[in-house]
Amino acid sequence: MDFLKHLNSAILENSNHKLLLPFGNLAGDLLELNLKSKAQICRINVYNTVAPRQVDSVLLRKIILHQYDLILLSSPSAFYNLKMLLGASFPIKELKVACIGPVTEKALTDYEVIPQVVAESSTAEGLFESVKKYFQTKSKK
Hints:
It is built from six helices and five strands. The chain is an alpha/beta fold. The protein folds into two domains: 14-47, no CATH class; 57-133, 3-Layer(aba) Sandwich (Rossmann fold), CATH 3.40.50.10090. The strands form two sheets. Strands 3-4-5 form a three-stranded parallel beta sheet, sandwiched between helices. The longest helix is centred in the last third of the chain and has 17 residues, at 124-140. The protein starts with a helix and ends with a helix.
């Protein structure tokens, strides 16, 4: 959303800008829809998101046993893949997660998972800063 806001303010109406948007196959169309009135848009899917073929069973077990402080999720597909790996019997609502922004937050809340942290800025740096603030606040209690 921050990126869209900055890009939208930088592109003038009827300026004949041409934008190439390289995305993954699961990326939404938010940028395209919000910029199509200001620029010619060409979207190219440059990669396909796939579920991991194998995972560290020790780490997965720690999640199942709630032996972690926070899981950081940077995309809806990261959540969906984690959910699949944990299995249908895992109480998904009990996950303790931080997410990179509102799109990932929506994926979580669709399954009634309430994130402990939603990055204030939808970037890796924003996620880091929000998680840092979360743990600083938590340690003061």
